[in-house]
Structure formats: structure tokens, C-alpha cells
Amino acid sequence: MFKKIDRSSLLFLGGALAFFIVVQALISLNVLTAFWNTILRIGGVMAIVSIGLNLIYGFNGQFSLGQWGFYAIGAYSAADITYRWTNNASTDGLIVLLLIVLLVGTSILLLYRLLSRIRGLDALSAFTVYLLAAIGLSVASVQLGRVIAPPVNGLLQALPPDVATTIVFILAVLIGGLLAAEVSFLFGLPVLTLGSDYFGIATLGFTIIVKVLLDNSDTLLGFTEMKGARGMIGIPKVTSWFWVMFFLVLVLVITRNLIHSSTGRAIISVREDEIAAKAMGIDVGYFKTLTFVLGSLFAGLAGGLYAHVNGFLHPDTFNFIKSFDPMIIVVFGGLGSITGTVFASFAWALVLEGFLRLLLPSGFETWRFVVYPLLLLIMMLLKPNGLFGNFEMPYLRQILPPLRKKTSQPQSEGITVKEANV
Amino acid sequence: MSDFQFTPSPDGREEILRIEGLTKLFGGLRAVNNFSLQLHRGDLNGLIGPNGAGKTTVFNMITGVYTPTTGSIQFRGQEITGLEPFQINQMGIARTFQNIRLFPNLTVLDNVRIAYHPHAGYNLLDGIFRNERFQVKEKELTERAQEFLSVFGLEDRQGEIAKNLPYGEQRRLEIARALAAEPKLLLLDEPAAGMNPAETVALMDLIHFIRERFNLTILLIEHQMRVVMGICEYITVMDFGEVIARGTPAEIQANPRVVEAYLGPGAAALSEKFRRKKTV
């Protein structure tokens, strides 16, 4: 019942597995120090964020600086879940957020079906409906979560602690991703109607709002464990190299399958020519929203992973200045090239945090922020299309279908168009 | 010409398009005023007029790019004013653009396959999981797209990037893409613009051919009189947003109002003089 796997897929999965095993072996044998281990994991996390951004900017053509805000949402929400589990042995964070994510997600899907039938509904009124539904269901989830949490708590306590923590961690990462996706849907609804540049500014605003909220997370939002601008500590450091690679490969496979499907082509057509896409029956608004939500989902997943790399989160990490990092990676690797994005992410982490930090004489470490922009400048002058341009590795490349047999040439009386061609 | 009479087709063909009292105001400018038009299945009609007469505005209103200020557009008996362009396309109206609007960085094949998206028959999740449904439908859709390309003599070009095609082939690809959406009504906005005489002749044959093969109704805007007079069965002439004449190509050529709209007041008398001279 399993179909033959084609060669490029085999090559890709084999390559990913080999890369994972080699690095894992080096880590296990202590050849790679904790320092390099962290840098590699950060590189993988960055690749996931940047693939999300490449979808939004590279494939759908929407200039977004909001990726970092969704990364932050994923990081903090996932961190809060695992923090409560490991430090307080309570699952209320997990259960409440799970309920919110599931209920709001379902309501969004249902409402989308309903509202799309209304002719001429403006984005703002639709937004109001979604927002009210989301707030109502969130309040209900908090109440419902209080009831469900204790029995689930008992169930998880019965498991071996390592297994339970891993389960909570995986759920936390997925919830972080979904939460970011749902927030991006609500935020994108009114904002995606804006043209590209204005959209960029609006998303930058979003990242700033998230950062300010996180600065005041203990007072304004009431999450004392997040400790606001002092930084959140005590998050379990459970993001291993395995989980980073697992999610990276998952995201790569999803992205590749998406891009080379009819949906993916519709997404790309919006970038190519919005007016022509509309005239060809493409619901431009839907595909912009879809891509934005998917890109944010990846950002949220990456955020959840990042939170458990160092076990420490600080609002400054999510400053809007940093939101240019994935943008730089995407452009550096080549807009619309997934291979380039993955490569550039690892290069970014290895060069900026790794080699430059080690190569520069002590006391001059901060000069890497001078060397790095210079490298970017030189790179852009030499290769404006990015490191990889349009290049993709075979697995990610589009396969051109074989030509049809000439015998099926349609027969028509009178002229055939081939004759009419000049 | 505002007293336009809607009539059933003499040979009982279905009414495809009925435009009634269509008006579009841009601020104080009356771009289109009280425009009416009727098309039956299989019609090949032309819409002509000097620059700025409002022809493209009419197209943009039919395809939903602009919402009419007043008036109604009915496509096969259904009101389509106020619908989104993509919805109108999915109902069966496709168009080409005055200045070619292909998806420039995509392959020729993908340009056509995108137009097929509403008929793809599989959704996002099928695509991500690459299930049986995806495999079957994707193959089917690709084959249909290739069939279209071969009809237009572009099958060898399927892997080429659209913007690298020569001009004539880009025009043909745009028409192929419009037809891939499986329309009932095709709107062609200056299909012969920028074509040399040989390419123009080929285009005229092509338009005839696709009408027969795909059972289409066609409305076209064109400035090259050779094309309009050569292929259109019925012509509507606009000037300053109003319809100034309707009729067969012969009637239009003889209409003094049309001649004056194109060449200025007094031109009609002059052309009449030349014509008499010729016949003498």
C-alpha cells in the first residue's frame, strides 16, 4: 500500500538523518561543547522562523516584520506551560491554553465558512465577530480548564517524570504554534487589506506591542512567573538537537508539499500579480490570510523550541530590532529559496554567535555587529539575489511533468492553431 | 442610444450577458453613462471607441474590479454586481488585459495551472499530505493544462519562464490562461495591441478557432479596425462614456457619428465625398 518513495525524497530524508546523527554523535562524544550545541540548536530554530517568513514574504510577497512578535508569543506561551508543570507540578496552564487553542481554532474555521457567504462584508465587522468569539471562548476555557486540570494532573503524575515532561513539552510547542497562528489570523484580518508597505509598518507595530506587553507581563497581564522586564527563568531546558531537527524536517516537508500543490501556486500567484490572480479566480484575501497564518504557526513553533533551549526568556530578545534578523536571513539566503533560508539560518547562527565571537580578540566581541553588517553589505553587492538565488535542492525543486504524447493532438476542422502561429 | 431594446435571440440561443443602464462616476467624471449591452451564447461582439471612451471601465465593471455607480449586470440571469473579481471568474467570465498581465516569474505551465486552481478538486490538507486524491487530481489538472498549451502551440514551452517568451506567445499564453478557467464568456482587452500584421492575422484565426472549440461567447475591445471589422459580427461604439452607435461592421463603417467620433467634426462629410469619388 505504500508507494515507491522517489529518489530526491530519499536523498533528503537520508541527508537530514545523516546530519542529525553526525551532530548528535559529536554532541554525545563531547566533541561539540555546550556552546556549539546551543548555537546549532539556535540555527535550527532560526531556520523554522525564517521558513515561515519566506512563505509570507518570499512566496506570498507580503513584507512582514511581525514574525518576531509571533515568535515571542510562541516562546512565552510554551514556556509558561512547561514552567507551571516543572515548578508547580500543575497542568492548568497546559489545559487552559489547549482549550483556548482548540475552541478558538474551531470557532474561527466555522465562522470563516459562515461569514464568507455574506456578500460585501467589510473586514472590520468580520474582525469584530471573530474577536468577540475568541474572547468569549477564552473566558469559557479558563473556567472549564479549572475543572479539567486536576484529573489530567493526576494522570500525568502517574507517568515517569521524563516522559510526562516530554509530553507536556511537545504539547506546549504545538500550542505555542497554534496560539501564534490564531493571533495572526485575528491580527491579519484587518491588516492584510493594506498594501505591502503599509502592511510592513502595521506588522512592525505588532512586534512592538508584543514586546511592551512582555515587558509588563507580571503586572499588566498578571503572569507573575514571567517576571516582566527582569526575564523569565526556571524553564526546563528540554529542547534537544533531536527535537530541533524533528520540527525542522517536519516544517520543511510541509512547506515543500504546500508550495508544489495547487494551493501553493495560488499563494505564489498573489506575489506575481495580484490583479491577474483575482481575475483568474484566486481569492487573494484568503490566500494572504492562509500564508500569514501558516508563517506565524511556524514562528510560534520555533518560539516554543527556543524557550526551552536556554531555559531563559527576556523581552529584549523579542525587541523589534531583532525582527530584522529573519528578514535578513530570508533575503540573504535568496527570496523564495527554502534551501537558501535553511543554509543562511545556520550560517547566521554559526558566524554571528559562533565564529565571530571566538575569532575577534577578547574585549572586541561586540564588534561582530560591525563585521556582520559589513558581510551583509558585501554579499548584497556581489549577489543581490541572495546566496542561493532561485536554487533549490532536488527535494524542494519543482518537477516538470513530462510532455504529453503528440498523438493526442486535438483534431479540428478547418484551421488548427499551430498553422495560424507565426 | 439609451432606449436600447433587449431582444431574445432569433435562433433561440441562451442569453449570456445583459447589461442595463450601467453608469460609473469617478468623482465628477462620468466615465460610463447609461451603458446597455446584450450577448447571446456564441456571439462575437466588439466594443470600440476612441481613447478614453470608457471601454476598459466597462470591462472592469463586468469583471468586478470596479463597482458600478448604478445599473445592473446579469450573467446568465444572475446579478453579478457587487461580487468579488474571483467570484465572477469562478462563475464563468474570464478576461485578458490591455497590457499583458502574466505571472512573470513562473513557468508557462504554472501560469495555466494557476487558472485551474478553482477546479483543482483537492484542498490544502490533501496537498500537504500528498494523499491519493492529490496524486490523481494533480495529474489530471496538469494534463489538462498541457492540453491547453498544445492547443495554443505552447506545449514545448511549458518549462519556460513566462516573461522570457516573445510578445506574441505571451499574448497567446494569456488567452490560454483565461480559457483554462473554463469560462462561458471571454473578454479580450485589445488582444492585437503591439502585434505585427502577420501576428494579427494569426490572432484573428485563433479567436475564431477558440470560439468554436470551447463554445465561447466573446466580447472584445480593439483599436485595430482590421481586426474588429474582420471578425466581429456586431459592434458597439462608445464615445465619452456613451454608446453612439450599434450595428454590423458595414453599418458602423457607414455611420457618420462613428467617423466623427474618431476623426473629428466634419470628417463624415469629407469621407462621404471620398466614397462618392471612389464609386464614380
From TrEMBL, chain A:
Cellular compartments annotated: Cell membrane
Predominant place of localization: membrane
GO molecular function (one): branched-chain amino acid transmembrane transporter activity
Keywords from the named record: Cell membrane, Membrane, Transmembrane, Transmembrane helix
One Pfam family named in its UniProt record: BPD_transp_2
Topological category with respect to the lipid bilayer: Multi-pass membrane protein
Top-level lineage group: Bacteria
Transmembrane segments: 35-56, 92-112, 124-144, 164-189, 196-214, 240-259, 286-307, 327-352, 364-382
GO cellular component, one term: plasma membrane
InterPro entries according to UniProt: ABC_transp_permease (IPR001851), LivM-like (IPR043428)
Protein name (database record): Branched-chain amino acid ABC transporter permease
Species per Swiss-Prot/TrEMBL record: Anaerolinea thermolimosa
Taxonomic lineage of the native organism: Bacteria, Bacillati, Chloroflexota, Anaerolineae, Anaerolineales
UniProtKB/TrEMBL annotation, chain B:
Entry superkingdom: Bacteria
Record-linked SUPFAM superfamilies: P-loop containing nucleoside triphosphate hydrolases
UniProt domain ABC transporter: residue ranges: 17-265
Keyword field: ATP-binding, Nucleotide-binding, Transport
Any single biological process term in GO: D-alanine transmembrane transport
GO CC, alphabetical: plasma membrane
GO MF annotation terms: ATP binding; ATP hydrolysis activity; L-isoleucine transmembrane transporter activity; L-phenylalanine transmembrane transporter activity; L-valine transmembrane transporter activity
UniProt-recorded name of the protein: ABC transporter ATP-binding protein
